[in-house]
Amino acid sequence: MRFGILGETRAWRDGGDDVPLGGPARRALLALLLVRPGEAVPADRLAEGGTAGHALHSQVSRLRAALGRETSIERVGDGYRIAVRPDDVDAGRFERLADAGREALRDGDAERASALLREALELWRGPALADVPQAETEAVRLEERRLAALEDRIEADLRRGRHRDVVPELRELVGRHPLRERLAVLLMRALRDGGGRAEALVVFEETRRRLADELGADPSADLADLHRDLLRGDPAPAPARPPAPLTALIGRDGDVDGLADLLGSARLVTLTGPGGVGKTRLSIEVAGRVGGRGGEGDACFAELAPLRDGAVLPRALLGALGLREAAPHAPHAADAAQGPEDRLVTALADRSLLLVLDNCEHVVEAVAALAGRLLAACPGLRVLATSREPLGITGENLWPVRPLDGDAAVRLFTARASAVRRGFTADPRVVRRICAALDDLPLAIELAAARLRTMDVGDLAGRLDDRLGVPSRGSRTADERHRTLRAVVAWSWDLLTEDERRAAERFTVFAGGATPDAARRICGDAGDALESLVDKSLLELADGRYRMLETIRAYGAERGEPLDDARNAHARHFLELAQAADPHLRSGDQLEWLRVLGAEHDNLLAALSWAAEARDVPTGLRLAASLSSYLWIRGGSVAAQAVRLVEVMGPVPPGLGEEYATCVLHAAPDAAGRDVWRRHRAAAEAALEEAWADGNTGRYPAVPFLWMMRRADEPDARSAFALVLARRDGADPWARAAAHFIAGFGPLAAGDAGEAGREFEAAAGGFRALGDRWGTALALDALAGLAARRGDRAAAVALTGEALVLTGELGALDDTADLLVNRGDHRIEADRAGARADYERAAAVARRAGSTTYLAAALRGLGDIALLDGDVHAAERLYTDALARFDPHWIKSVGGRATALIGLGRVAAARGDHGTARARYREAAGAAASTGAFFEGARAVEALALLEAAEGAPERAARLLGAAAALCGVPSGTAPEATAAHPDAYAEGAALSREDALRAAGLDASVIGAVSAR
Predict the structure, then answer these.
(1) Facing residues of 548 across strands?
(2) Strand partners, 400
(3) What pLDDT score does 762 carry?
(4) Within 508-563, where are the H helices?
(5) Is residue 887 classed as helix, strand or coil in its secondary structure?
(6) CA-to-CA distance for 645 and 936, rounded, in angstroms?
């Protein structure tokens, strides 16, 4: 006989039949005896079950009668003992299996551990000792063992690479046990291993805060160590993983094996076939196998069905790869900053990756062109495409995906039917006739099988015959099969209730799925229509989001009534989400809200596109403005939508001047937006000034700062700077911190390091108080540069390290690469090995991010190392490579480009070619000074001075060193030791204006004129 106390108290005979135990008192008595099987339990302990004295003896007699001769209950002293083994009781078996699972985990056998622990946990049917409320101590012990076993099982799954599968379960467990640190550690590891490093950091911060608030305790060593590891590592971009399959793939073993082999040699494979044949599901299975091979790279899944225009394909792939676009606020972004295609090439050039492009047919020309370019430039890239037609480019291998064979179709139907009707059985000939009528198309079979919840198999077969008009099928063309699928989808649609049909049609407005709350709101589902659509296979629910297969979505979108009302509701919903998120993006909650908006990125863009298409200018302007901070941090573009909104706008809607200005700002980076920027810039800036005039606080504190960043390199940018600086004593704390940050650069350029430092410190303090990691990192980087200028390299390294922690939390690869180069520059004099490590790491991060400019900066740093090592040839190669990659028109490239030119000058000087060296130094000084980068320009003039000294002209060298001091604003009293022999010459150079200092360095009049214009 077997017994159960992990849930309500139960007993089963060997054949599996339940033993009738009687009422609650008898169940409680049995449970108390089974807590310690084979051991005597005192009568007063048994009395806690609700009986005592004579009543206890009576209940024991009745229990003996119920159990029969198979199990004896013996009187022992003042108590009773049930004569069973621990393994006869589910709790005993559970503890034995849990111990064995933990032992297997210790031995490194994760597969065996997972199996044992799952078997143990499956013994639980409910709360331990559910029939004995008084047995709290033992129940708590068992529940603790259960939770520990659950943690061990999840640990085993993590070791088996199942990190994505356990995240939803862990989130739910952490919600139930918020102070249990091991669960937090497991969730952080699962998120990290799935590429969600920033989300893992959010979990740590939430756990730390709860521990402090509720227990007054710090995180445990394990939790703190994991947090440090997350901060220390480079923020790796998280490519979009293939969706987790909800069911087993049936009948495609040969396809999976063949495709896995083919992708071992072929770099472009296209799965072709009609809709519903299973191309997407097959690609998911292949990606899971091929992308998971050790050493062969990862897999990235790009869903192209939501794209309405092939022109946005490169941006969609950047998003799928987890990469930011180049900063949309960068000056000259439309003219010269790296485009999305270039960024993709840089990111994938040295990477091994399987890129799955799903549903290509509606943008097939754009996919073919981009895939061809990427495959040509990125040797480690393989592409698996799904399309109803071939891409038609050289090197493409076609793999037609055919309907299932007869046996596989029957197995699929049976499996799906069994899922909706337990114990399903049917005549195989009838099932085969149904599948044949459906052309053995998997999606059609699944939709038909879902109907068995409400009809029997014979009725289903008859209705299909009537609907399709074909009792049997012979050879069929792809077009005919597609018509069959469409008929089945239409039939499934027609069988929906009115509420279900309305919900399904309205759901088609979503891009990238929807949360249950959003789906209920937009679909108007006050009941269970959405759940019913899941039951009928028209929707999927996975990872907390509803999704609709593209074949079904396309049918619903074209069949339903005009969906303007649903699209308007969709736009309003996501406007409200963006408005709610915006202030949090400048606070300590920014990581969580970046995750929320990131999950809805496609929906946000779809809402903005609809607002432009519907000429709903107020909604579009508000949404574009509310997304400004998100797009700045994440790195994204809505330029096309912004251009369209401005074009259809007419007069600026009353009260939306600030939103209008933000829309003009969004339009600027796009080539099509140049004319919008030119025509609207003045009016937009005036609208911004009005919104923030007379001490008013605008609705979007980041926008004046972004406006200034956009205009920073324009000749007449003073008004943009003034717009930010006027907020220095304003009411909004973020705008105030940003104003202090910008205010520091004026005194820095004038040589007043003390005042610059005070402004940067105020900025850092303001951003820190808000919890804004991005702003704090900007201010810390500025303070590090200031420390380096005064010669405090240790402080510069420490400050840059702090900034790196913050950009790491944000997963900002571009900024991390930039900061690593800066730290290398701060280290190079005292710690060449550390500098080399920083430059190499920066190069790796920049390659992953697809950032040509920051890769160039890292190569320039490695060129400096090579030159210090005496390897002139390597230095020249690295400097030349860097110079070719720097964008000469982007302000972020100015310093690095000047430094690379100085490096090439030093290479020439080392070879004795002083003429070339002098030309390089002057080119560097001119490139830097003409854009206001006077510190970098001064370094080039210093290099000219060293060249003069090498040629035996120390007095001229001293004068040029003075000119360099004048250029970067260093007071004349700080003459370097090298000028001691010619102090007057140094003083003469230091007293020069910037224009005269550049003349003394031999720069031509055009460069000097550009400096004067600033």
Answers:
(1) none
(2) 272
(3) 95
(4) 516-523, 529-535, 550-559
(5) coil
(6) 41
pLDDT, tens only, 582-622: 999 999 889 889 989 988 998 999 999 999 999 999 999 99
Q: How far is CA 235 from the centre of its chain?
A: 11
Distance CA 776, CA 788 (A): 18
The answer to whether 310 and 393 have CB atoms below 8 angstroms apart is: no
Q: Which amino acid is at 564?
A: D
Helices 773-789 and 590-599: angle between axes, nearest 10 degrees: 120
Q: Which helix (DSSP H) or strand (DSSP E) does residue 876 occupy?
A: helix 872-885
Token pair 């985990």: residue: 105
Q: By the 8 A CB rule, do 318 and 371 touch? A: no
CA-to-CA dists, residue 868 to 311, 316, 380, 399, 823, angstroms: 46, 43, 33, 55, 17
State the sign of the Cα–Cα–Cα–Cα dihedral 831, 837, 840, 841.
negative
- Strand-by-strand arrangement of the 298-303 sheet: 298-303, 353-358, 381-387, 268-272, 396-400
* Gap between the Cα atoms of 863 and 878, Å rounded: 5
For residue 820, give both structure tokens: 């690593």
Quick one: three-class SS letters along 727-761? CCCCCCHHHHHHHHHHHCHHHHHCCCHHHHHHHHH
Specify whether the CB–CB gap between 736 and 553 falls below 8 A: no
Interior CA angle at 988 toward 987 and 991, to 5°? Answer: 80
Task: Write down how long the chain is.
Answer: 1014
Tally Cβ neighbours within 10 Å of residue 1: 13
Q: Where are the beta strands (DSSP E) in 319-364?
A: 353-358
Computed from CA positions of residues 587, 593, 598, 600, in that sequence, does the dihedral angle turn out positive or negative? negative
Helix spans in 300-423 (H)? 313-320, 340-348, 364-377, 406-420
Q: What is the pLDDT of residue 639?
A: 86
Q: What is the pLDDT of residue 973?
A: 45
What SS3 state is found at 681? Answer: helix
* Residue with tokens 């209730």, as numbered in its chain: 497
Could you tell me the two tokens for 622? 């508000």
At 59, list the tokens.
């209940």
Where the chain has pLDDT below 70, the residues are: 48-54, 195, 198, 231-238, 291-297, 325-338, 464-486, 488, 526-527, 559-561, 888-891, 970-980, 1010-1014
Other residues' Cβ atoms within 10 Å of the Cβ of residue 976 = 15
Strand pairing category for 268-272 and 381-387:
parallel
**Are the C-beta atoms of 812 and 793 separated by less than 8 Å?**
no
Cα 482 to Cα 485: distance, rounded to the nearest angstrom = 5
**For residue 710, how far is the Cα from the chain centroid?**
26
- The two tokens of residue 922 are 């002057």
**CA–CA dist 438, 485 (Å, integer):** 7
Q: Distance from CA of residue 248 to its chain's centroid?
A: 27
| Two tokens, residue 345 | 């090439």
pLDDT of residue 975: 55
Spell out the residues 6+ positions from residue 934 whose beta carbon is closer than 8 angstroms to its own.
749, 928, 967, 968, 969, 994
Helix (H, G, I), strand (E, B) or coil at 384: strand
Taking only Cα atoms into account, the Rg of the chain, rounded to an integer number of angstroms, comes to 35
Q: Which residues contact 89 (CB under 8 A, 6 or more apart)?
A: 2, 3, 4, 5, 34, 37
Please choose, from the candidates 667, 669, 691, the residue with its C-alpha nearest in 3D space to the C-alpha of residue 680: 667
Tokens of 148: 């520990």
Burial string for 255-284 (b: 16+ CB within 10 Å, else e) reads bbeebeeebeebbbbbbbbbbbbbbbbbbb
Helix or strand or coil: residue 810? helix
Structure tokens at 132: 């004995």
As to burial, measured by CB atoms within 10 angstroms (0-12 exposed, 13-18 middle, 19+ buried), residue 136 is exposed
Structure tokens, 211: 């521990």
Tokens (6 digits) for 971: 């007071």
With beta carbons less than 8 A apart as the criterion, state whether 684 and 646 touch.
no
pTM: predicted TM-score of the whole model, two decimal places: 0.70
CA gap 791, 802 in Å, rounded: 19
Q: Scan for tokens 């000792």, then name that residue.
A: 129
